[in-house]
Structure formats: structure tokens, C-alpha cells
Amino acid sequence: MDVDEFRVRGKEMVDYICTYMNTLRKRRVTPSVEPGYLRTALPSEAPMYPEPWDNVMSDIESKIMPGVTHWQHPHFHAYFPAGNGYPSILGDMLSAGIGCIGFSWAASPACTELEIIMLDWMGKAIGLPPAFLPFSEGSKGGGVIEGSASECVLVSMLAARAAGIKRLKHQFPTVDEGLLLSKLIAYCSKEAHSCVEKAAMISFVKLRILQPDEHGCLRGETLKEAMEEDEEAGLVPFFVSTTLGTTSSCSFDNLLEIGPVVRKFPSVWLHIDAAYAGSSFLCPEHKHHLAGVEYADSFNTNPNKLMLTAFDCSLLWVTNRYLLTSALVVDPLYLQHCYDHTAIDYRHWGISLSRRFRSLKLWFMLRSYGISGLQKYVRRHCELAKYFEQLVRKDSRFEVVNQVKLGLVCFRLIGSPDENHQQVDELNKKLLTNINASGKIHMVPASFRDQYVIRFCVVHQYATREDIEYAWDVITDFATELIEGPDK
Ligand code: PLP
To answer: pTM for this one?
Structure first.
């Protein structure tokens, strides 16, 4: 494809995407295909000779689309939103077009500098303390775009691990590092995302998973008891991962209690994972959830969830960037440049060397929507969740099980008095299976307080009350059929 054909095909592709978006309602939300469906539809080997573009595009509609789950569908209510604002799609397009690889400042100065500035804009907009922001006086802080929240948690844990080992090595210079590593222990709540467990597996450290309170919130006293107990047993607490807006129920850990506990232990790193909820802090009415953030060493959020920004865009801030970069630095000659002692080289801030120009999509989003436009989306998202909550509460067959603070409502059928815990779980499982099999709306389950619950998340950028009412009608129709039989 040469530039002239790209000009034509590029415009056609934008047209295709616009038609796709405008006609999404006509499609099933989830595909009805079996694993391996595509294997039988495509040749077993790559073509030896070029194929006409039109043929390739026609296979998109006939072969690929039947297997697509439409995350941007107005009736998609699973997981958390996968932001997809048009300015961010265009930002990704431009990033692909420029095609630079910004592993160091010198590798493409604008790529690094725009990222620093976007993280500064975002940090200020959501209300992070100056210690996280690179341009504040005396600050050692800074932010970076990682590929996922999982990576943010992992690199924070790796930095904390390196600092922990360094400190222990100083105390016990003759003890082998492997033995010191075996003493390190991290903490999180049972409600934390599974990526914390994965980070501990990769980091080869112990992880103690703590019981939250009845609202899914990790409390200071629980953490304190666990850390003291472990310290008495000869272990070394080094990392605490908290969550603002958990995946299962959108609960918030109590930072005001946890922060002072962590401070009592020498050099324990406090991380805050606000993958979903972080963007809500753009709104003053949600900023109170951040109380206690000043105790944290690192904080992450995904604008690719609640800030309409196309995946991937996971932001991580730290209060001491030197702890992060010293844990991840490897510096071969071919990557060095004459400014590497003064400029930021993002290759030392994460796992991968090569990195895309991801800050462009944030830049386009922030400038096209403005903070006010993004606040409007967040508010609408939360209002619609409250509306769904009201609908659930009006139907005595159901209960709402979480505190609805943002866009997630967890609910379940209560079941009849003669049904036990397991039977009620089975009932809800059946309800969700039937709904999802219909392809009319899509939701996913979660376990909350050891119960099977159904998660309903407001997702679509332009969701309306009618979409919420449609979803509730689908849910109640299936519930009636399940409880009373198909003829009712
Ligand atoms: N943390 C929280 C609170 C999440 O909700 C999620 C995903 O939904 C993650 C971490 C993992 O995000 P990612 O897919 O960006 O690794």
C-alpha cells in the first residue's frame, strides 16, 4: 500500500468505524460462536501473494465480526467501561502514523515530554498531592504511561522489593539476597484485583490476603494486626496494595486508617490501585475518596476505563521516581545519549524498552473534551447507575449488595426462604447464563461476601435511561421465566 492508497483506504476505514458505531444496536452484544470458529473460516497458511484490500475488508464483516464481543454496544454492561472516545482513536492513529519508539528522551523528545506533561495535567486534575508531580518544587515524583494497571502494580512492587532488599542488605551485609527475599511480605485485601497476586508471583515474594469489612473495605486495624504478627514471626513487611474502586464491587479501602499503620513500619511502600475509580476524581464530589492519598508512594489509574480513552493508557505516579528507575535500570551503550543524566528516559520506568506515543491520545482527549466534558461523562455514568439501583430496589425479588458509589451495581435474586446459600448462588448463576446466552445484554458475575452476584456496569459513552430500562426489562423477564416457568 502506498501513501495514495492509504489516503483512500484510511478514509474508508474511518467510514467503516462510523457505520459500525452507528449500527451497533442491530448486533447481538456477544457472539454465538464456539471456540475454534475462525480456524475453519480462514486458510491454514498466510497468502503467498497480495490480496485485494476489498476482499480483506469483506472478510472483516463475514468472518471476524461474527466472533466479536461488542464492548462499545449500548447493551454491554460487563466488566468496566473500555473507553473509546473518538479523539483518542485519532490519537492512536497519529501515534501509529508517526511510528516513533520513545524509549529515551533522545529517541523522540516530544514523545517523552508530552507524556511528562500529560501526567502532570492528569495528576493535577484528579487531585494528587504535589509530591507525585514532577514540576512541583523539591518533588522527586513523576508519572508514566504503562500498558496496563497490572504493569503499574508490578513495577511498583518491583521498586518496593528492590528498596526492601537494599535496606536489608545494609542491615545484614553477609546474608544472601535470596534469603532476604524470602523474608519479604506484601499485603492486599481479598477484594484487590488478581493482578496483585500475579505481581507477587512474578516478584517471588509472599503475599498475605486480608479480609475486608462487610462493605469490601480494607481497614487499618486488620492490616496492623497482620503486619505485627508477621514481623513477630520474622518476616519483613515491604508493600501494601490498596484499592480505590475494587473490581468486584467498587469498594474503597480506608486510606486514612491504612496510611498511619503503614507509616509505623520502616520503609513499607503503600500503593493505591484506582484503575477504574481514578478518573472519577476529576469531579470534586468524588475527590473525598482520595483522603489519605498523601500516605501513598504510588498511585495508578486507567483513563482507558472511565475516561473514554482508548486502550491502552494506564497511568502510574510515584513520589520517588529514583526508587522506581533504580530498580529497573539497565543501560547498554547503544541506548545512551548526551542528555541521559538530565532528561527522563522512560525505558527505566517499566518492563518494556519500546513504547508508543500514547500520550497523544490523552492530549487529544483532554483538549477536545476539556475537564468539564469528562466530568459530564463521569456524572452521567454515575447517575445512570443510581437509576439502575433504584429499579433493582423496587423489585422485592432482588437485592443490591454493594454500596453504589460510581457506575457499578452488584445485585442478585434473593431466592425463596427455603433455598440455601448454594441454591441461591445457583439460581443467580442460571439467571446470568440465560441472559448472556440471549445476546441481548451482557454482564459478568463476581464473588462478594462469598456470594455469587451479578455486576451491572454503566459503560456506553452515550448511555440513556432507555438503555438502562431496556436492560432491566431483559433481566426481569428472564428472572420471571426462571422463577415462574416459561409460560408466565
Ligand atoms: N485493578 C483494578 C481495580 C481493576 O478493576 C482492573 C481491571 O479491571 C485491574 C487492576 C487490571 O487492569 P489491567 O487490565 O489494566 O491490567
So the answer is: 0.95
Ligand 1 center to 282 CA (angstroms): 19
The minimum-distance atom of ligand 1 relative to the CA of 304 is 15
Q: Which domains does the chain have, with CATH numbers?
A: 3-83 (1.20.1340.10), 100-357 (3.40.640.10), 373-484 (3.90.1150.10)
Q: Say if ligand 1 is within 6 A of residue 249 CB.
A: no
CB 307 within 8 Å of CB 121 = no
pLDDT of 328: 80
Residue 350 burial (CB < 10 Å; 0-12/13-18/19+)? buried
**Gap from CA of 310 to ligand 1 centroid (Å):** 15
Q: Which residues, in sequence order, are bridge partners of residue 210?
A: 189
- Quote the ipTM score: 0.98
Backbone torsions φ then ψ of 210, nearest 5 degrees: -100, 155
- Ligand 1 centroid–CA 171 distance in Å is 36
Phi, psi of 413 (to 5 degrees): -70, 140
The whole-number pLDDT of residue 418 equals 87
The pLDDT value recorded for residue 182 is 96
Ligand 1 near 271 CB (within 6 A): no
Contacts of residue 154, Cβ cutoff 8 Å, sequence gap at least 6: 195, 198, 199, 202, 203, 351
- pLDDT of res. 342: 79
8 CB-near residues (< 8 Å, 6+ apart): none
Across-strand partners of 444? 455
pLDDT of res. 487: 62
According to the model, what pLDDT value does residue 339 have?
A: 72
What parts of the chain have a pLDDT lower than 50?
none
- With the most atoms of ligand 1 within 8 angstroms of its CB, the residue from 217, 273, 302, 312 to mutate is 302
pLDDT at 488: 54
Q: Is 80 in the pocket of ligand 1 (CB under 6 A)?
A: yes
